[in-house]
Design a protein that fits this description.
The complex is a heterodimer. Chain A is mostly helical. Chain A contains six helices and no strands. Chain A has helices at residues 6-43, 47-102, 106-116, 121-128, 132-146, 151-163. In chain A, α1 (6-43) runs antiparallel to α2, α3 (106-116) packs across α5 (132-146) and α4 (121-128) packs across α5. The longest helix of chain A is centred in the middle third of the chain and has 56 residues, at 47-102. The radius of gyration of chain A is 30 Å and the shape is rod-shaped. In chain B, strands 1-2 form a two-stranded antiparallel ribbon. Chain B starts with 6 loop residues before the first helix and ends in a 7-residue tail after the last strand. Chain B contains seven helices and two strands. The chains are: A mainly alpha, B mainly alpha. The A-B interface holds A 1, 12, 15-16, 18-20, 22-23, 26-27, 29-31, 34, 64, 67-68, 70-71, 74-75, 77-78, 81, 85, 88, 92, 113-114, 117-120, 123, 127 and B 1-3, 5, 7, 9-10, 12-13, 18, 20-21, 24-26, 28-30, 33, 57-58, 60-62, 64-65, 68-69, 72-75.
């Protein structure tokens, strides 16, 4: 299951548009400068050159600002992406940690993971090429080791961990309600 | 929900490649625009014509923009992320011979040398081109010779660049051309990242 945030593709489109604008503006800036030099030879210093120079400076400033804007956008998308990947990695580590604690066998780990991914016993049996009875026995063993009495409770262990109050709230992070028991 | 999940998704997160955004749109746009301009000015446009001259300035603008972007852009695009270091390139060559398969998120050290080489060559070609058009150097033969020699060097570099991309795609299993098109490197799960 891939987490895909709706903002990402819109940001990507905006970033691409900005990139095109930057290149067009850069082309314009180079040709403007060439023109300034050509005119300087023709007219010498004067109003014409002063105006052209001002336009060129404005071009460069907007070019710089657009580059900064694009950088901001890229950084935002990058940190979003990194956050999602970190969350994925954390979740995998968390699940692995529980499996270790319950001392699941290799086969049980795989079955438990497939259960968490939302497969029912029939589908897991088909995927692993074993009888449904085997899966049923293995899931019973998993429930026993985890100390739960069914699939829903197994899920709830991980959900609880995800929704748990973070130990130390990060700077700038949303403040949770005070713990109440 | 169980029936709707494909077996491929069930295989687990471990086996699927990591998709990491590396090249921003500006880097990609400049890369392919520069490639197009080199192709056009090398083989299509009339070297004496105005279009050839204009495209030369376009190449100049592209490289200069890329250099600016290399100063203020996001990390993979930064020039300091891939300094032209022969020492690192040599070490990288040694690692290649030893069968190293690690993946570089930005350019690998050999690729970095090539990038700097191509930018410098393009800038020099533009410089000699502008000199050829200026009255002071008009018809001076060494400038024209330089322009030609540099272009041949650029062609050689581009061929080497493409060979390097093919080789590194084979070595690391990361489809590099695709990464330069959509910006994302798909890194096989078993490859270490440097």
């Amino acid at each position: 299951m891939r987490l895909r945030l709706p903002t990402t593709s819109r940001d990507e489109r905006r970033a691409a548009t900005l990139a095109v604008l930057i290149v067009v503006l850069a082309l314009a800036a180079v040709f403007f400068i060439i023109d300034v030099f050509a005119d300087l030879g023709e007219y010498g210093l004067g109003w014409h050159i002063a105006l052209e120079l001002m336009a060129t400076v404005a071009l460069f400033i907007s070019l710089g600002l657009m580059m900064l804007e694009l950088r901001e956008m890229q950084n935002r998308m990058d940190s979003l992406d990194r956050g999602i990947r970190a969350a994925r990695g954390d979740m995998a580590g968390l699940i692995g940690g529980f499996f270790d604690r319950w001392q699941l066998t290799a086969a049980e780990r795989e079955v438990a993971l497939l259960m968490l991914k939302g497969f029912d016993n029939d589908a897991i049996a088909k995927l692993r090429g074993v009888a449904v009875g085997t899966i049923r026995a293995q899931s019973a063993s998993i429930y026993a080791k985890a100390g739960v009495d069914g699939r829903a409770q197994l899920f709830s262990i991980f959900m609880e961990e995800l929704l748990a109050e973070p130990q130390a709230t990060e700077k700038g992070g949303p403040e949770g309600p005070p713990p109440s028991s | 929900m169980a029936g709707s999940v494909s077996p491929a998704a069930a295989a687990g997160g471990g086996a699927s490649p990591r998709v990491i955004p590396v090249w921003d749109p500006l880097v990609r746009l400049i890369h392919w625009s520069l490639a197009l301009v080199i192709l056009l000015n090398g083989f299509v446009t009339d070297p004496e014509g105005e279009l050839h001259e204009t495209l030369g300035y376009v190449a100049l603008a592209l490289v200069l923009t890329r250099l600016c972007w290399g100063l203020i852009g996001p990390r993979p695009a930064r020039l300091i992320s891939f300094p032209p270091s022969p020492a690192r390139a040599l070490r990288h060559l040694g690692a290649l011979r030893a069968g190293d398969r690690s993946v570089h998120l930005t350019h690998n050290p050999l690729g970095a040398l090539m990038v700097w080489n191509i930018w410098a060559t393009v800038l020099l070609i533009v410089a000699t081109g502008i000199m050829m058009g200026s009255p002071r150097f008009f018809g001076v033969s060494w400038v024209e010779d330089m322009h030609e020699i540099l272009f041949n060097w650029l062609l050689f570099s581009v061929i080497l660049h493409i060979a390097g991309v093919i080789f590194d795609t084979w070595r690391t299993g990361v489809p590099l051309v695709r990464a330069m098109i959509d910006g994302k490197k798909r890194i096989p799960a078993d490859r270490p990242i440097e």
